[in-house]
Design a protein that fits this description.
Largest sheet: 13 strands, antiparallel
Shape: globular
Number of helices: 4
Structural class: mainly beta
Distance between the termini: 25 Å
Strand order of the largest sheet: 7-6-5-4-3-2-1-13-12-11-10-9-8
Strand content: over 45%
Number of strands: 13
Order of helices and strands: HEEEHEEEEHEEEHEEE
Number of domains: 1
Radius of gyration: 17 Å
C-alpha cells in the first residue's frame, strides 16, 4: 500500500508541486480547469487523477482526487482527496486553506493547513525526527495547489515555466519545468521532482531526483493544457494521459 502511494505521488506530480516561482508571469484570464488523467505504470492501469479548479477576481479554488484502479485497484483500494483555496496572480499562488483525506483501505486519515502571512499551520502537527517545522516553510504551497498550478490551462507565456516548492505538513520538495520545445503537435517540457527535506534517510538514499516530461496541447481558444506526463519512477515508467 505504501509503495502504491509513493508510485502515484511520484507520477502524479512529479507534481506534488508549490509556490515560489522564479519570476512573475502575465496574469492569466479568469477561467476554470476540469481534467481527468489515467495513471499507468509499466503499461498497467494503476489509477486516475482528477483536478478541478476555478479562478476569479484574483482568487482560486481547486480540488482533486487520486485513486487506485485497474488491476492495482483490485488489490489496493486507495483514495486521496484534497481541496485548497487562496489568492493567485499570474503563476504566483498564496494558499489560505488546505484540507485532505486519505483512505488506504485499512486506515482513514485527514489533515489540514491554514496560512497566515504565507506561513502554514498544520492541524494536529506532531514533531518527528525528520519532519520539517511548519514555521520554517513561509512561501511554500500545499500539494493540491501544486497540482493545480501544474495542470491548469495556461497562456503561451506560461508553458513550461514553473519552479515551485511544496510543503505537505512534514516534507519539503521542489518541482521545476523548463526547456519548452515542439514535439509533433504538442509542446514538450523537461521536468524534475526533487526531495529536499523531511524525508527519511532511507528515502533520501534511495533517490532524491526524479526527471519527467510534461506535454502541452493547444486548445481551441488558444490556451494550452497538459495532455500527458511521463516519468521514470522507482517502479518503472509511469504515464499519465488526459481522458
Amino acid at each position: 500500500m505504501k509503495q502504491f502511494i509513493k508510485i502515484l505521488g511520484i507520477c502524479a506530480l512529479p507534481l506534488t508541486l508549490t509556490l515560489a516561482l522564479t519570476a512573475p508571469q502575465m496574469a492569466a484570464a479568469d477561467g476554470s480547469t476540469d481534467a481527468k488523467f489515467s495513471v499507468s505504470i509499466r503499461g498497467l492501469t494503476a489509477g486516475t487523477l482528477t483536478v478541478k479548479g476555478q479562478e476569479s477576481g484574483g482568487s482560486y479554488k481547486a480540488s482533486g482526487v487520486l485513486q487506485s484502479g485497474g488491476l492495482v485497484g483490485l488489490v489496493a483500494k486507495v483514495k486521496y482527496s484534497a481541496s485548497t483555496s487562496g489568492r493567485v496572480k499570474g503563476n504566483r499562488f498564496s494558499p489560505t486553506r488546505y484540507d485532505e483525506k486519505a483512505d488506504t483501505g485499512k486506515r482513514k486519515s485527514s489533515s489540514s493547513m491554514s496560512y497566515k502571512g504565507g506561513v502554514p499551520t498544520v492541524s494536529d502537527y506532531v514533531s518527528t525526527p525528520n519532519g520539517v517545522k511548519p514555521s520554517t516553510q513561509k512561501g511554500t504551497v500545499d500539494p493540491m495547489t501544486a497540482l493545480y498550478a501544474a495542470f491548469r490551462d495556461v497562456g503561451e507565456a506560461q508553458v513550461c515555466k514553473l519552479d515551485v516548492k511544496m510543503y505537505d505538513g512534514k516534507r519539503r520538495s521542489q518541482v521545476k519545468l523548463s526547456s519548452p520545445r515542439a514535439d509533433g503537435d504538442m509542446i514538450k517540457c523537461d521536468g524534475e521532482y526533487r526531495r529536499l527535506a523531511g524525508f527519511s534517510a532511507e528515502d533520501m538514499a534511495e533517490k532524491t531526483r526524479f526527471p519527467f516530461n510534461l506535454f502541452y496541447a493547444k486548445t481551441a481558444d488558444g490556451r494550452y493544457r497538459v495532455e500527458k506526463v511521463v516519468t521514470q519512477s522507482l517502479y518503472g515508467t509511469a504515464v499519465m494521459k488526459r481522458k
